[in-house]
Write a sequence for this structure.
């Protein structure tokens, strides 16, 4: 009927609400309703994509995508793309929403935000802000092989940031919590306490010393080590990057690429911010072990990469109506059995890096960079001077092999990950890690 | 589009808004993507959406949708959101009727009417040019062309309707023999004037040139920063500090620094919404204030913050035409337009005895946007020896502070590039910390 080898459609409909509090005053309330469809069609080795907004005609969108695919196949023919066959997904074990945010009045959300936002405004804090956001979406998937699936997901969360200033110096602290949960997120986390923590971090950093760069042994706290798992290992495990030749993990399946202490997992079924019951091409999700005791076990796959490389699909995601690409979900380094005190004792002299201001990776060369929120010098096994503006960079494979101790205190942190211009919700986590040698950058 | 906008405006007033504004955006885009030396597919998108701002006693409510049958509901939501908030005495009013300048070079019929064949042709030009260099794989890349229209209507008589086009190309390459090295290049324009083959060629040659690296010891030296790296740093460190909203909220290093010397006396920086063919050029900003050119730094002296209507009202000054929106989904906030870095130029590498050249950086977004401190990983970096690029450097972190850097700029190249909205040559900075 459409003269293509495969097509699929994804319809997403939902609302988002966000409230921004700035220096104690509500700055903005925004409510959005969107509806749209994303359609893909495959002919030979060529993809055609279209998206349609609002009150669309799905048949028309499928025709448009098909025409594109046919025309591309005609103009630049190439090797046929095979899609892994899958069964229709089953949505079980979905997160239960106890307090649907849509049932709570805007007035209550505003007053709650104002109330906990106050706690960031401590003495010495020159400015503070807090944001509440919620989204509620329905996702419907169908493809030309008869796969069908549907789910609803509610996400809520909040973020608080505080800026402390003194004598022309500015430091910021930030705390945020997001999840696949309803308004009960405020029962799970004490937002007022977190607001106070953000303020304390900013104030504390005013007295921190700039870091002196160089190569040294380091301990990463669970948040920063989680960013390492995500940036350095997770991205390089994405099979689309492997296939295009830009991953250092290409042709390494079954090889030992890390210290035997390291096990890294990506699990979309966990009820964390990166949760999804099936991915954006209909594949049922399951827990995927990327590195098992140092050995590279698996990449993350889409239906296309799974068919090509052999593997299990379930990690293909899109932001809204964008085109789905291979992505992570909830990525973490599994618990080991060391304690932070043992790491400090073992390391003697080095640096303890805490929190994250984000990171970036070049998967092709296997080089990553990320910034810690703060750090401490470690001298004779003791935390001494507080350090600011400290970053860490290095080669993925070197650092993985330099992991000498893995803690038993796994913690997850929610955030958003960007790839190909698309942002998707993710969580990453880790216990404390001790690394025998890493490159620390500073002023 | 006009009828929808008017309907939305009337609805907001009917539900009780004292002032209201409607922003409608419609865009049509074709893109072609590359994966491993091949064209992977093509995408066509048409997006239309509407954003409604309703103001009640200075409190702003906002609602947006892409479902045109929801417009009435969206207007109602915007008004009720505004009513939920306390009055804001700092709110003056939405912009009112004004005369608009003419701008040129932002609409090109060739781009507007470009057929799929030509889009594929340009994509192939990038791939073929990159592959002309031996030992190179184009890992990923893309071509895109777009045509967009926006309409802004408000209850104070603003009526802005404008259309424009855009075209861009990007490739990322990797070497497949010898030492692994990567590089990318891209270009973006409002006119159909991009040399796509040059994008492929530049990326491929840079990746090749970056092989056979050496390690260097940590030291302080002169660093020449390519437009890609410099714009990345300036957008993440300097631009946030001239945003009047950050200044008013105590989140800027430039609070109370107007008319201070903050940079080398030869450095000037302009924000220009009128630049011929600029990426951020238009007759008006995203709330309908006429575009203009603002001097940010004049010969080293800090002259102006960037304002939208709300922040300008708060400071009792005129808006600089810097209200900016990413899409119809958000309210306007302060954003730079075409951001032009001006410094007397020369053959900058030939003018440098010893130092380091940095093409791109990774991690600029992790900088401290208030203090201006950053520590980033440099890519495609080279040593400079006796006025020539010498050896590629294996791994290099550069650290510094943007405000120190502005003072330490002591040279610029002749290679001015439009890196999105930032227009800059290569910039040389003295005394930077590099860790190899």
């Amino acid at each position: 009927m459409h003269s293509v080898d495969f097509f699929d459609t994804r319809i997403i409909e939902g609302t988002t609400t966000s409230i921004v509090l700035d220096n104690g005053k509500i700055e903005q309330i925004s409510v959005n309703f969107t509806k749209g469809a994303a359609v893909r069609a495959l002919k030979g080795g060529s993809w055609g994509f279209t998206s349609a907004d609002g009150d669309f005609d799905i048949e028309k969108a499928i025709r448009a995508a098909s025409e594109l695919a046919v025309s591309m196949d005609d103009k630049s023919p190439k090797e046929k793309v095979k899609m892994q066959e899958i069964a229709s997904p089953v949505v079980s074990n979905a997160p239960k929403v106890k307090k649907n945010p849509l049932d709570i009045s805007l007035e209550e959300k505003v007053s709650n935000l104002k109330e906990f936002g106050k706690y960031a405004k401590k003495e010495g804090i020159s400015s503070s802000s807090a944001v509440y956001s919620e989204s509620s979406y329905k996702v419907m998937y169908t493809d030309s092989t008869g796969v069908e699936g549907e789910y609803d997901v509610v996400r809520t969360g909040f973020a608080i940031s505080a800026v402390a200033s003194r004598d022309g110096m500015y430091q910021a602290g930030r705390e945020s919590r997001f999840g696949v949960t309803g308004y009960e997120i405020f029962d799970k986390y004490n937002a007022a306490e977190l607001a106070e923590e953000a303020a304390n971090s900013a104030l504390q950093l005013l007295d921190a010393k700039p870091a002196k760069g160089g190569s040294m042994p380091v301990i990463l706290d669970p948040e920063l080590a989680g960013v390492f798992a995500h940036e350095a290992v997770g991205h390089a495990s994405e099979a689309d990057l492997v296939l295009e030749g830009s991953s250092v993990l290409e042709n390494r399946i079954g090889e030992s690429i890390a210290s035997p202490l390291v096990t890294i997992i990506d699990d979309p079924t966990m009820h964390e911010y990166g949760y999804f019951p099936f991915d954006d091409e209909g594949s049922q999700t399951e827990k995927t072990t990327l590195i098992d005791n140092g050995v590279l076990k698996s990449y993350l796959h889409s239906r296309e990469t799974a068919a090509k490389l052999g593997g299990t699909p379930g990690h293909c995601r899109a932001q809204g109506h964008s085109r789905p690409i291979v992505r992570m979900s909830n990525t973490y380094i599994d618990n080991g059995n060391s304690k932070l005190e043992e790491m400090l004792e073992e390391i003697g002299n080095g640096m303890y890096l805490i929190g994250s201001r984000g990171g970036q990776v070049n998967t092709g060369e296997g080089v990553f960079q990320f910034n810690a929120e703060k750090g401490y010098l470690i001298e004779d096994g003791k935390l001494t001077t507080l350090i600011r503006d400290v970053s860490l960079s290095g080669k993925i494979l070197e650092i993985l092999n330099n992991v000498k101790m893995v803690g038993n205190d796994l913690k997850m942190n929610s955030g958003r990950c960007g790839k190909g211009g698309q942002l998707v919700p993710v969580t990453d986590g880790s216990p404390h890690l001790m690394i025998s040698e890493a490159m620390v950058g500073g002023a | 589009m006009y009828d929808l906008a008017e309907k939305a405006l009337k609805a907001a007033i009917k539900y009780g808004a004292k002032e209201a504004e409607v922003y409608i955006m419609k865009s049509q885009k074709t893109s072609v993507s590359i994966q491993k030396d091949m064209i992977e597919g093509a995408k066509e998108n048409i997006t239309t959406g509407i954003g409604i701002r309703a103001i009640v006693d200075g409190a702003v409510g906002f609602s947006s949708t892409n479902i045109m049958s929801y417009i009435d509901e969206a207007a109602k939501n915007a008004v009720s959101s505004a009513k939920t908030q306390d009055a804001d005495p700092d709110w003056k009013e939405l912009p009112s009727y004004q005369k608009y300048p003419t701008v040129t070079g932002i609409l090109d019929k060739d781009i507007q009417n470009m057929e799929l064949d030509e889009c594929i042709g340009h994509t192939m030009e990038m791939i073929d040019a990159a592959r002309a260099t031996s030992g190179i794989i184009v890992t990923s890349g893309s071509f895109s062309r777009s045509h967009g229209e926006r309409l802004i209507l408000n209850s104070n008589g603003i009526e802005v309707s404008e259309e424009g086009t855009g075209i861009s190309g990007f490739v990322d390459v990797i070497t497949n023999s010898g030492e692994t090295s990567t590089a990318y290049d891209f270009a973006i324009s409002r006119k159909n004037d991009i040399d796509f083959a040059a994008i492929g060629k530049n990326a491929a040659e840079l990746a090749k040139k970056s092989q056979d690296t050496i390690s260097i010891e940590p030291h302080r030296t002169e660093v020449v920063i390519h437009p890609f790296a410099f714009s990345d740093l300036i957008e993440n460190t300097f631009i946030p500090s001239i945003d009047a909203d950050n200044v008013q909220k105590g989140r800027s290093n430039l609070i109370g620094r107007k008319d201070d010397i903050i940079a080398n006396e030869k450095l000037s920086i302009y924000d220009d919404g009128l630049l011929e063919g600029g990426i951020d050029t238009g007759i008006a900003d995203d709330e309908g204030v006429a575009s203009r050119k603002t001097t940010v730094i004049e010969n080293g002296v800090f002259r102006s913050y960037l304002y939208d209507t709300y922040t300008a009202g708060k400071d009792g000054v005129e808006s600089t035409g810097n209200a900016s929106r990413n899409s119809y989904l958000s309210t306007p906030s302060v954003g730079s337009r075409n951001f032009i870095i001006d410094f007397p130029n020369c053959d900058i590498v030939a003018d440098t005895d010893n130092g380091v050249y940095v093409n791109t950086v990774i991690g600029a977004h992790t900088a401290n946007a208030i203090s201006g401190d950053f520590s980033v990983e440099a890519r495609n970096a080279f040593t400079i020896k006796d006025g020539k690029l010498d050896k590629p450097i294996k791994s290099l972190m550069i650290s510094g502070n943007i405000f120190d850097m502005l003072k330490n700029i002591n040279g610029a190249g002749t290679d001015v590039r439009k890196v999105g909205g930032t227009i800059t040559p290569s910039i040389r900075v003295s005394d930077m910390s590099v860790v190899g």
